[in-house]
């Protein structure tokens, strides 16, 4: 949990003092998002080398050189009193004063950042102060670490890599589903309830189905054909049924079956609805670009097998099948 | 041809923020009948249409269009805009009609992506 604290400038004033408009919000990319999500104490260096005000600069130079760092906090009695950087030592070297104590050359004006702030706050402070490193303090003003621009870059890259790995793992798991689960016959069933006349959400289920197929490793042409067929079928449920219906996708390693079932009104003459151009759709549906009497014709062209059964007053069942080459879902080619 | 060039040729306005306008568009297709779009289009085209309901975006998604241009300055319904942002399909509105737009794009070298389908 976040301890009580005063809001950061970032939170009060938004990015660089500007408020975030809808337009800006849409322009935030993943790196920017991370710079808001990642906290300073997640990317800072917590194991610090410290120095005292009395220490001679020559000794500090040794510490910097051995640890390949460019600055250290200066502490007295657990209190941060200054920062000594390589630049300060260079100034001393120019005057040949390497034996002088740290206190003589350290930067006393200390600008700190809070560990629980987003790294965007540190980026701003770097820009405003032109400093290269900042001490990080906790809610009790205690020094807990140091942060440099390098820490921020590393932090963001690590987070991006984690994102990428997670997505890879998700894809890998899904596409190997049929290989990893051993059975005599594995079927993945996805079921969607489709409401009658719900035009606004029309196509949502089909969109999910298409994405699932791609994630399962179906080749893009097959996913497109399935997407088009199932979308036409979904729109039929929305346009023509009394109470909506159920849209079902069954994926097996060798074939994809999509089906719709509803409880009415049913089709009187199936041969007639299979005629291109025949439609019973209302004017309202036609205005939306549907009801041209091409739906079932389209479906038939996209799938290998289409079966339709209907009884007036009972309902309609439409089954669509596509066979898939074996390498599609399990990465193995059958000989 | 990239989307940026298409926006220039059609004097269009990009309605969806933060979308990649350098994306390549390989062809064009114009229709107001969604079943026609689903039946006879090839993937990777820009869709010219007078319809602005959410189904246009769903149709474009299923048929794998790269972008949608609304003709005669039409503005999409809010749900349409929302879905297009979710599905990352750029929406453009152009002041010209379907015929003029088709002509402009075709003349600039954008091929027709209408496939011949027997009815």
Explain what you see.
- The complex is a heterodimer of chains A (335) and B (119).
- With 335 residues, chain A is an alpha+beta fold.
- Chain A folds into two domains: 9-155, Roll (CBS-domain); 183-330, Histidine kinase-like ATPase, C-terminal domain (Heat Shock Protein 90).
- Helix content of chain A is 43%, strand content 19%.
- In chain A, the strands form three sheets. In chain A, strands 6-7-8-10-9 form a five-stranded antiparallel β-sheet, with helices on one face.
- In chain A, β9 and β10 (315-323) form a beta hairpin.
- Chain A is rod-shaped.
- Chain A starts with 8 loop residues before the first helix and ends in a 5-residue tail after the last helix.
- Chain B has 119 residues and is of the alpha/beta class.
- Chain B has one domain (3-107): Udp-n-acetylmuramoylalanyl-d-glutamate--2,6- Diaminopimelate Ligase, Chain: A, domain 1, CATH 3.40.1390.20.
- Chain B has a five-stranded mixed β-sheet with strand order 1-5-4-3-2, with helices on both faces.
- In chain B, α3 (54-62) packs parallel to α4 (78-87).
- Chain B is globular.
- The chains are: A alpha+beta (335), B alpha/beta (119).
- Chain A binds chain B through residues 22-23, 26-27, 199-200, 202-204, 206-207, 210, 224, 227-228, 231-232, 235, 276-277, 288-290, 292-295, 297-298, 301, and chain B through 17-18, 32-39, 43, 49, 51, 53-56, 58-59, 61-64, 79, 85, 87, 117, 119.
